[in-house]
């Protein structure tokens, strides 16, 4: 009986629940298919809109604008100029494409819509005149059929001065499989196919999967395999064409999904029925056993009490027991049905919660309004964007609540248009309006209205996107576009072949130097520099001297696009200032040398006095011998030889003095550093003896070749030696030792060390030692060490000082020495 009851319940409930589940599934499936079709069409229309933006950006490219302004465009032509797989000069090097889609033709039309410049991907005949005749009179896009194939035609006007002829850029893009796939690239679904449908003949024009849905197939041939949703394209389609956007979903996939759901529910019902049968049978068995024992007891009592036998069923009346359990059984069945209903309601609520989460996570504000524009529902993005809570927006007029007073009329006209025409089921074109948030701040928004056709009324979904960031980015791009042209310094762009593709107005002196115009090729030397810069990939700086100006040119490579930017900087005044600084430094060094010679006048007089006195003595001796008639010829010749030697010595002293004091031009010559130190030591010989200073030499063996300005380095060493002798005047006479030493530090550097035994330099003086006009002497100018430091710095050398209080000071002059320098005789 339990199995029989379970089977009856199964036979009754299974078809009822299966039919109810099927109806729920079909309703939910229809809603999902409609939503998927709307989403696919919305993505397709957004992709068409992106091509409009691409055409506008290409039309505003500076190459095309400059070309239209050029005299070459103004000239009349009998035939259009064509380019086959070769980019025109007015087109940017990067390909014009969105994803994998590229235009088959890019046409530049004149004011009469005659083709002037044509760029082909393939050399195939094409009805350009027919395509050009569809021009709507302004920027826009058009979806139409040419040669029974769908094409997207996009026009954009080229910016030009008023007095020149206008130019119109036309892009011709085939709406083929690649285009449809690229428009739906955000969704990957192998079982869904989108296609363009010729509405009158119900014929496929193009599809995203030619292996499943081929061109020229009739719609009736596909209904057995697909669930088809077709929607009109009103924003871009030509008025004489009935082109529809269709979405195909595989019936096998839908039926398989429905079968899986029904099988799952049927399995659950079967398991529930088995459980009910088992429980029912167990309860029936237990009750039967209890009743059987009770009847046996009653019969036994009757026999003992009344002495009569009453018939007792050993198994009991099963029909009566089953009849008693039927209400309970149906109660359990009703409970199972209720549980199934609750589970389905929970699934529906979860589905609604998922849809609500998707709407709240959308980047656009989504608001649902009724026919009068009153807010019915809104998502979380709208609350975050405008600062109003959901309760504050419900029941309010959307136009009054959000939009600028000057834009409310446009929004109202859009709703009125849909209310007046029940045939309009497509989303409106994006409308740019001004909106206010809860704080009263104005923001630009892009608004799209999508009607929702219900059974008794029509609602509208309003998509509102905040485009403040996009507006700021557009303004930034516009400002950057004028940055190079407004730059007061030269800015040029040169490609790998050395062609000047761009030059701003400040580049005129450079172009005049090269005798070039923009779009011409640089001279060979500069082409090689551009090529080397691209290959090495590093920034290079070159100085260019013109007739009147001197420029520092910075070559910056952009290897990915294979061009080099040349940034120029006028350094004429800088170089003139450096030349004047060097001249002033030379004059100041000359003044210091004259001042030094004034301080050394006594020593120089004594040094000249010795050879002059010797000349007088030898000459007087010769005169006396000749007058007395004594002495032989050999003695007179020897005396005359001594006179010659002393005269040459005096001349050498005068020569050194003139070279030291003379105001000569700076000239670097190859000298032996040891000889230089010996010569300077001879200058201070008299002063050293007068001041009681013991001068000692410790020179490197083999010579130290350096290429220096001889006079300037002598001045530096002379200043350092004189400062050392002055410092040692504070020490005992027998402890005044000046050590002049030379050494090779490494293969490219030599040094002269000047060490004294003076009292040392205090730390507070050490910090200002090389500052101009700082001196510890009462009569000093404070320029000796400053000039010395500058001279050594100009020789790419350095001066280092170490001092210890009470023990003395060491000055180290380090100079560069090329290992290739060779001294004569060494």
From TrEMBL:
UniProt xrefs under InterPro entries: HATPase_C_sf (IPR036890), HATPase_dom (IPR003594), His_kinase_dom (IPR005467), HisK_dim/P_dom (IPR003661), HisK_dim/P_sf (IPR036097), PAS (IPR000014), PAS-like_dom_sf (IPR035965), PAS_fold (IPR013767)
Stretches of the chain forming a coiled coil according to its record: none
Any one GO MF annotation of this record: ATP binding
Secretion signal span: none
Membrane spanning stretches: 270-287
Residues in Histidine kinase domain copies: 603-819
Any single biological process term in GO: regulation of DNA-templated transcription
Keyword Transmembrane among UniProt keywords: yes
Enzyme class: transferase
Listed SMART domains: HATPase_c (SM00387), HisKA (SM00388), PAS (SM00091)
Pfam family, one: HATPase_c
Listed CDD domains: HisKA, PAS
Highest rank taxon of the organism: Bacteria
Catalytic activity: ATP + protein L-histidine = ADP + protein N-phospho-L-histidine
Every PAS domain range: 351-422
Enzyme Commission designation: 2.7.13.3
Keywords attached to this entry: ATP-binding, Kinase, Membrane, Nucleotide-binding, Phosphoprotein, Transferase, Transmembrane, Transmembrane helix, Two-component regulatory system
PANTHER family named in the record: C4-DICARBOXYLATE TRANSPORT SENSOR PROTEIN DCTB (PTHR43065:SF46), SENSOR HISTIDINE KINASE (PTHR43065)
Name of the protein this chain belongs to: histidine kinase
Source taxonomy: Bacteria, Pseudomonadati, Pseudomonadota, Gammaproteobacteria, sulfur-oxidizing symbionts
């Amino acid at each position: 009986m339990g199995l029989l009851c379970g089977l009856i319940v199964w036979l009754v409930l299974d078809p009822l629940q299966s039919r109810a589940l099927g109806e729920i599934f079909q309703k939910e499936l229809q809603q999902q298919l409609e939503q998927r079709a709307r989403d696919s069409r919305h993505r397709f229309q957004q992709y068409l809109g992106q091509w409009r933006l691409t055409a506008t950006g290409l039309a505003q490219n500076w190459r095309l604008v400059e070309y239209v302004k050029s005299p070459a465009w103004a000239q009349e032509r009998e035939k259009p100029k064509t380019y086959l797989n070769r980019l025109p000069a007015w087109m940017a090097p990067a390909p014009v494409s969105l994803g994998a889609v590229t235009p088959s033709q890019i046409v530049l039309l004149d004011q009469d819509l005659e083709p002037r410049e044509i760029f082909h991907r393939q050399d195939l005949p094409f009805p350009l005149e027919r395509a050009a005749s569809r021009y709507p009179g302004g920027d826009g896009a058009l979806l139409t059929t040419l040669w029974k194939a769908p094409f997207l035609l996009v026009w954009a006007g080229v910016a030009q001065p008023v007095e020149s002829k206008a130019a119109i850029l036309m892009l011709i893009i085939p709406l083929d499989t690649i285009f449809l796939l690229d428009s739906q690239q955000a969704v990957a679904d192998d079982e869904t196919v989108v296609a363009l449908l010729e509405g009158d003949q119900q014929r496929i024009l193009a599809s995203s999967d030619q292996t499943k849905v081929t061109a020229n197939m009739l719609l009736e041939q596909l209904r057995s395999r697909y669930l088809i949703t077709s929607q009109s394209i009103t924003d871009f389609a030509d008025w004489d064409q009935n082109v529809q956007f269709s979405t195909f979903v595989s019936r096998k996939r839908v039926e398989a999904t429905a079968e899986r759901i029904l099988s799952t529910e049927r399995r659950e019902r079967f398991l529930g029925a088995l459980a009910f049968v088992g429980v029912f049978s167990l309860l029936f068995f237990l009750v039967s056993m209890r009743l059987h024992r009770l009847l046996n007891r009653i019969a036994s009592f009757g026999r003992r009490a009344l002495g009569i036998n009453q018939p007792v069923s050993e198994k009991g009346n099963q029909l009566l027991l089953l009849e008693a359990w039927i209400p309970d059984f149906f109660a359990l069945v009703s409970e199972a049905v209720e549980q199934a209903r609750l589970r389905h309601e929970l699934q529906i609520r979860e589905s609604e919660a998922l849809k609500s989460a998707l709407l709240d996570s959308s980047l656009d504000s989504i608001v649902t309004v009724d026919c009068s524009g009153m807010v019915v529902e809104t998502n979380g993005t709208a609350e975050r964007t405008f600062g109003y809570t959901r309760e504050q927006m419900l029941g309010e007029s959307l136009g009054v609540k959000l939009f600028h007073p000057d834009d409310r009329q446009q929004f109202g006209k859009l709703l009125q248009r849909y209310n007046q025409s029940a045939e309009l089921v497509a989303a409106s074109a994006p409308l740019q309006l001004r909106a206010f948030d809860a704080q009263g701040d104005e923001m630009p928004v892009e608004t799209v209205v999508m009607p929702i056709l219900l059974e008794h009324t029509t609602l509208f979904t309003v998509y509102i996107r905040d485009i403040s960031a996009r507006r700021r980015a557009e303004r930034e791009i516009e400002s950057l576009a004028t940055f190079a042209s407004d730059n007061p310094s030269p800015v040029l762009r040169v490609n790998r072949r050395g062609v000047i593709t761009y030059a701003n107005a400040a580049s005129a002196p450079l172009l005049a130097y090269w005798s070039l115009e923009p779009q011409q090729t640089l001279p060979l030397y500069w082409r090689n520099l551009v090529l080397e810069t691209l290959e090495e990939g590093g920034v290079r700086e070159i100085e260019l001297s013109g007739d009147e100006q001197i420029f520092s040119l910075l070559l910056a490579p952009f290897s990915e696009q294979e061009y080099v930017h040349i940034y120029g900087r006028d350094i004429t005044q800088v170089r003139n200032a450096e030349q004047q600084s060097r001249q002033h430094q030379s004059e100041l060094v000359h003044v210091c040398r004259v001042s030094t010679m004034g301080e050394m006048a006594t020593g120089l007089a004594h040094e000249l006095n010795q050879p002059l006195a010797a000349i007088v003595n030898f000459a007087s001796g010769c005169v006396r011998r000749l007058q007395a008639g004594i002495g032989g010829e050999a003695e007179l010749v020897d005396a005359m030889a001594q006179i010659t030697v002393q005269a040459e010595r005096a001349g050498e002293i005068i020569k050194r003095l003139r070279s030291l004091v003379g105001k000569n031009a700076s000239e670097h010559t190859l000298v032996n550093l040891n000889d230089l130190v010996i010569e300077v030591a001879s200058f201070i010989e008299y002063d050293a003896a007068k001041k009681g200073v013991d001068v000692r030499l410790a020179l490197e063996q083999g010579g130290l070749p350096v290429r220096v300005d001889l006079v300037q380095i002598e001045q530096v060493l002379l200043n350092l030696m004189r400062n050392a002798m002055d410092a040692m005047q504070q020490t005992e006479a027998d402890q005044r030792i000046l050590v002049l030493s030379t050494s090779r530090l490494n293969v490219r550097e030599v040094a002269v060390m000047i060490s004294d035994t003076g009292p040392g330099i205090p730390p507070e003086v050490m910090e200002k030692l090389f500052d101009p006009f700082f001196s510890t002497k009462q009569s000093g100018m404070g320029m000796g060490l400053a000039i010395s430091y500058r001279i050594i710095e100009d020789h790419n050398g350095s001066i280092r000082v170490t001092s210890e209080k009470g023990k003395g000071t060491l000055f180290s002059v380090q100079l560069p020495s090329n290992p290739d320098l060779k001294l004569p005789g060494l």
